[in-house]
C-alpha cells in the first residue's frame, strides 16, 4: 500500500450552528490561520445559523452566509462538517441528529447534549458512518476526550478526578486567597464575564455534572446518567471555612470525581471538597481546569489548562475538525469491560468530614456532639473552637472526623441539628482522600 507524504490540501467546507462567543472565535481563528498560511487544513465557512440574523456581529463572515434557517447548514449539500455551538439540549439534539442522518460529520462543544443524549447521538453517527467529536465539551482547551477515547485504551481506568468548572474555581480561589464572601466574588465574576447572569449551572454544580457524565461514559464504556451523579454546589461555603481549612492543612475545591470500586461499582460525584494543600489539585487556581486520570498501566496522569474561553475552546474544536478533514479519526476503539458497572449510591461513600457548627460556648456542648457522632460510629480526629462571640455566648466548633460512611454522617447531621445547644449546623464538607 502506498503512503502519500503530500500535505492535505483540499478545502473542507464547514457549517456552523451558532455564532456566539465560541462560534465567533472559531471563525476568527480559522481566518487568522489562513492569513498566516499556517493552517494544516484549509477550512471554508459556507453557512452559519443563529437565533437572530439582524444582530451585527464582529466576525469575518459575509452576512449573506448567516441565517436563522437550520437547514441552510444541516442539509446543505456543500457542507461536509457541521459544527454545533449553540449549547443546551433543545434544539441542539434535533439539529445534530438530523445533520448526522444527512451524512455530515459533527463537531460539538455542547456538554449538556453530550451528557444527556450523547449515547443516542453516537449511535446515530455510527449507523450513518460519520463522526461525532466533542473534545471541546469538557475542560475547554485541554485535550482529555481524545486521550480517554484512544491513547489510554489499554488501561483500566481506576479514577478520574478534576476541577472541571472554571467559574466556580475562580470564585473559590478568590475566597481562599482574599477572604472574600461568596456573593461579592460571584458579582465580580459576573462583571468579568466569568459567570453568567444566571449562574445556577455553574455554582450549583450542573455544568461539572454534565462534564463528569461525559468523561465517565468514555472512561468506563457505560452509561452514567446525569441523574445518577451525586451533585452539590458551592453556595453554602463561607469565607471562614477557607480560614479553618487552611489551619487544618487544606483548601476547598469543587471536584468532579468518578472512581471504580469492584464491590460498590462506579461512584460519580460532584461536590466541594477539602483538598490537602500539598496535592497539585490544591494549586489549580482561577479559571484553570485540571483533570487527573489514573490508569492501571500508566499510573497517574495530569492534564491542566484553560477549561473555557473562546480561544482555548476554538483550539479544541478546530483540532476535531482537522482530525475529520484529514481522516485521522479512524474507528473509535470500543473497550470491553468484564462486567458492566453498577452505579453506586453516595450512601456507601466513605471519607473524612469537616464539620462547622455554631454552638453555645459552655461546658458539655462538645461532649454532646461527640456522643451523637459516636452513636453513628463516627470518631473525631480533631476539634477547633473559634470565633467566640462573647455577647451571644456562642462559638464556632470545627470538627474533623476520621473516615466515616456517608449514610452514618447524614443521620448524625440530623441529630446534631436537633441538639438545643447547637444554634446552627453551618457546614459539612467532605475531605478528598488521596492514596499517596
Ligand atoms: P453563546 O455565546 O450563547 O452563543 C450561542 C450561539 O447559538 C448564538 O450565536 C445564538 O444565536 C445561537 N443559537 C442559540 N440557540 C439557537 C437556536 N435555537 N437556533 C439557532 N441559533 C441558536 O454560547 P457560547 O458561549 O458560544 O457557547 C456555545 C457552546 O460552547 C455551548 O455548548 C457551551 O457550553 C460550549 N462551550 C463554551 C465555552 C465558553 O467559554 N463560552 C467553553 C466550552 C464550551 P444569536 O447569536 O442570534 O443569539
Features:
436 residues; alpha/beta; Rossmann fold; Dihydrodipicolinate Reductase, domain 2; Alpha-Beta Plaits; 3 domains; 6-stranded parallel beta sheet; 33% helix; elongated; disordered N terminus; binds NADP nicotinamide-adenine-dinucleotide phosphate
What can you tell me about this protein's structure?
The chain is α/β, with parallel strands linked by helices. It has three domains: 11-133, 3-Layer(aba) Sandwich (Rossmann fold), CATH 3.40.50.720; 156-304, Dihydrodipicolinate Reductase, domain 2 (2-Layer Sandwich); 346-431, ACT domain (Alpha-Beta Plaits), CATH 3.30.70.260. The protein contains 14 helices and 17 strands. Helix 1 (21-36) packs across helix 12 and helix 7 (166-178) crosses helix 8 (182-191). The termini are far apart. Bound molecules: NADP nicotinamide-adenine-dinucleotide phosphate.
Amino acid at each position: 500500500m502506498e503512503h502519500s507524504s503530500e500535505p492535505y490540501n483540499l478545502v473542507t467546507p464547514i457549517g456552523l450552528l451558532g455564532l456566539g462567543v465560541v462560534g465567533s472565535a472559531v471563525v476568527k481563528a480559522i481566518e487568522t490561520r489562513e492569513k498566516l498560511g499556517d493552517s494544516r487544513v484549509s477550512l471554508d465557512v459556507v453557512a452559519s445559523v443563529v437565533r437572530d440574523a439582524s444582530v451585527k456581529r464582529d466576525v469575518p463572515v459575509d452576512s449573506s452566509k448567516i441565517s436563522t434557517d437550520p437547514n441552510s447548514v444541516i442539509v446543505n449539500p456543500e457542507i461536509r462538517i457541521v459544527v454545533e455551538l449553540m449549547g443546551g439540549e433543545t434544539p441542539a439534539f434535533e439539529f445534530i441528529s438530523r445533520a448526522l442522518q444527512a451524512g455530515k460529520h459533527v463537531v460539538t462543544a455542547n456538554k449538556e447534549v453530550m451528557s444527556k443524549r450523547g449515547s443516542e447521538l453516537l449511535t446515530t453517527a455510527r449507523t450513518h458512518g460519520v463522526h461525532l467529536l466533542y473534545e471541546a465539551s469538557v475542560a475547554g482547551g485541554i485535550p482529555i476526550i481524545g486521550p480517554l477515547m484512544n491513547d489510554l485504551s489499554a488501561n483500566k481506568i481506576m479514577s478520574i478526578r478534576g476541577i472541571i468548572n472554571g467559574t466556580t474555581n475562580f470564585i473559590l480561589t478568590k475566597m481562599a486567597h482574599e477572604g472574600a464572601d461568596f456573593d461579592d466574588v460571584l458579582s465580580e465574576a459576573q462583571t468579568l464575564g466569568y459567570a453568567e447572569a444566571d449562574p445556577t449551572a455553574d455554582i450549583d454544580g450542573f455544568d461539572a455534572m454534565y462534564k463528569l457524565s461525559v468523561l465517565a461514559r468514555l472512561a468506563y464504556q457505560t452509561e452514567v446518567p446525569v441523574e445518577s451523579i451525586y451533585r452539590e454546589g458551592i453556595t453554602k461555603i463561607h469565607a471562614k471555612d477557607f480560614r479553618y481549612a487552611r489551619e487544618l492543612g487544606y483548601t476547598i475545591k469543587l471536584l468532579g470525581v468518578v472512581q471504580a470500586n469492584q464491590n460498590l461499582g462506579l461512584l460519580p460525584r460532584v461536590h466541594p471538597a477539602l483538598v490537602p494543600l500539598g496535592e497539585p489539585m490544591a494549586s489549580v487556581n482561577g479559571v484553570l481546569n485540571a483533570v487527573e486520570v489514573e490508569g492501571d498501566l500508566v499510573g497517574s496522569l495530569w492534564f491542566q489548562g484553560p477549561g473555557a474561553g473562546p480561544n482555548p475552546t476554538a483550539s479544541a474544536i478546530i483540532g476535531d475538525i482537522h482530525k475529520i478533514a484529514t481522516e485521522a479519526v479512524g474507528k473509535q476503539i470500543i473497550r470491553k469491560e468484564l462486567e458492566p458497572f453498577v452505579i453506586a449510591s453516595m450512601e456507601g461513600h466513605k471519607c473524612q468530614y469537616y464539620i462547622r457548627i455554631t454552638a453555645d460556648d459552655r461546658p458539655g456542648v462538645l461532649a454532646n456532639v461527640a456522643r451523637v457522632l459516636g452513636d453513628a460510629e463516627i470518631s473525631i480526629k480533631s476539634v477547633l473552637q473559634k470565633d467566640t462571640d462573647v455577647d451571644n455566648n456562642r462559638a464556632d466548633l470545627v470538627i474533623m472526623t476520621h473516615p466515616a460512611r456517608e449514610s452514618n454522617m447524614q443521620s448524625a447531621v440530623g441529630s446534631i441539628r436537633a441538639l438545643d445547644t447547637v444554634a446552627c449546623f453551618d457546614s459539612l464538607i467532605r475531605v478528598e482522600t488521596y492514596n499517596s
